[in-house]
C-alpha cells in the first residue's frame, strides 16, 4: 500500500518558552506536519515541551523522537501519552524506542533500571499495552516506534502504527530493503519512516562528528540513504523512488535542514 508523504522536523527543546514556540510555529510555516523532539537529559523534558508547542501552534502534530523506554515506567509513559493525546485533540503521537546506547547513563541518573535488550523491548510492549488500556473505547493514540534489529522490527510491526527505520547513517539500499522486508513479514503494513541526516551538497561538521569518522566517504556514495541532495526536483524524485522501493513515506529532517528541504515538502506533502 502506497501511503501519502508526510514530513517532520526534529528539534531539540531548549531555551525560553517564547523562542521554543517561535521555532514550533516555523515548522508549520515551512509546510511540515509534525514537530519531533529528542529525549535526553540535556534538553527540556520532551513531553512538557511538546505540550507547550502544541498549545501555541494549533495545527501542529507533536511526537517525541523517541522516548527512551527505560527512562520511565511503562505505566508513566502510558499515562502521560494518553493525557497529551486527549489534551491536544489527537495531535500527539507516542514515539518510543529501546534507547540509544548513551541513554544507559541517563537511566542510572534517574534511578531507573536499564536491563537487557529483551527487557527493554518488553518494557515498550508493556507501555503500548497500558496506553491502549487507557485509550479504551476512545481514539487510539498513534504509536511511532524506532527499530533496527529483527526483534525490534518484529515488535514494531506488531504494535506500532508508524515504524522509523533506525538505520546507521551510512546505511544503503540493501539495509533498507532488509529492514522493510522484516516489517512486511509480520503481515501488517504500518507507515514507514526514515530520518534524513543530511540534506544538500554540504555535510556539516557536526553531522560527521555524530555519524563517525568514516561517514564522509560513505555519505558521498549515491546509494547512501542518510543523505539527500540535488535540485528540489531531483530530491523529490529520490523520495518517490524510496517510497516505491521500500514503502517509506514519512521523512524526518533535523531543524537546521528544514529550510533546504522545504521546497520538496511543498511538492510532495499529502501526495
UniProtKB/TrEMBL annotation:
Keywords: Flavoprotein, FMN, Monooxygenase, Oxidoreductase. The keyword Oxidoreductase applies. Pfam families: Bac_luciferase. Residues 18-216 form the Luciferase-like domain. GO terms for molecular function: alkanesulfonate monooxygenase activity. The keyword Flavoprotein applies. GO terms for biological process: alkanesulfonate catabolic process. It comes from the Bacteria. InterPro entries: Luciferase-like_dom (IPR011251), Luciferase-like_sf (IPR036661), SsuD_RutA_monooxygenase (IPR050172). Transmembrane segments: none annotated. PANTHER family: ALKANESULFONATE MONOOXYGENASE, ALKANESULFONATE MONOOXYGENASE-RELATED. This is Flavin-dependent oxidoreductase, luciferase family (Includes alkanesulfonate monooxygenase SsuD and methylene tetrahydromethanopterin reductase). It comes from Pseudonocardia ammonioxydans.
Amino acid at each position: 500500500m502506497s501511503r501519502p508523504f508526510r514530513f517532520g522536523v526534529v528539534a531539540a527543546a531548549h531555551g525560553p518558552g517564547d523562542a521554543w514556540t517561535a521555532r514550533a510555529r516555523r515548522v508549520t510555516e515551512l509546510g511540515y506536519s509534525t514537530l519531533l523532539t529528542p529525549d535526553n537529559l540535556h534538553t527540556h523534558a520532551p513531553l512538557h515541551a511538546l505540550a507547550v508547542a502544541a498549545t501555541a501552534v494549533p495545527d501542529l502534530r507533536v511526537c517525541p523522537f523517541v522516548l527512551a523506554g527505560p527512562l520511565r515506567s511503562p505505566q508513566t509513559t502510558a499515562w502521560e501519552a494518553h493525557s497529551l493525546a486527549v489534551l491536544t485533540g489527537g495531535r500527539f503521537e507516542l514515539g518510543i524506542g529501546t534507547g540509544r546506547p548513551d541513554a544507559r547513563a541517563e537511566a542510572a541518573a534517574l534511578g531507573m533500571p536499564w536491563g537487557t535488550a529483551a527487557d527493554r523491548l518488553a518494557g515498550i510492549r508493556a507501555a503500548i499495552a497500558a496506553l491502549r488500556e487507557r485509550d479504551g473505547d476512545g481514539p487510539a493514540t498513534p504509536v511511532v516506534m524506532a527499530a533496527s534489529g529483527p526483534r525490534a522490527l518484529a515488535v514494531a510491526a506488531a504494535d506500532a502504527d508508524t515504524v522509523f527505520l533506525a538505520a546507521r547513517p551510512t546505511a544503503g539500499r540493501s539495509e533498507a530493503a532488509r529492514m522493510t522486508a522484516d516489517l512486511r513479514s509480520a503481515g501488517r503494513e504500518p507507515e514507514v519512516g526514515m530520518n534524513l541526516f543530511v540534506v544538500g551538497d554540504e555535510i556539516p561538521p557536526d553531522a560527521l562528528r555524530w555519524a563517525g569518522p568514516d561517514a564522509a566517504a560513505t555519505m558521498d556514495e549515491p546509494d547512501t540513504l542518510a543523505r539527500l541532495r540535488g535540485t528540489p526536483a531531483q530530491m523529490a524524485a529520490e523520495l518517490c523512488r524510496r517510497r516505491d522501493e521500500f514503502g517509506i513515506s514519512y521523512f524526518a529532517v533535523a531543524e537546521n535542514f528544514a529550510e533546504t528541504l522545504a521546497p520538496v515538502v511543498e511538492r510532495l506533502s499529502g501526495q
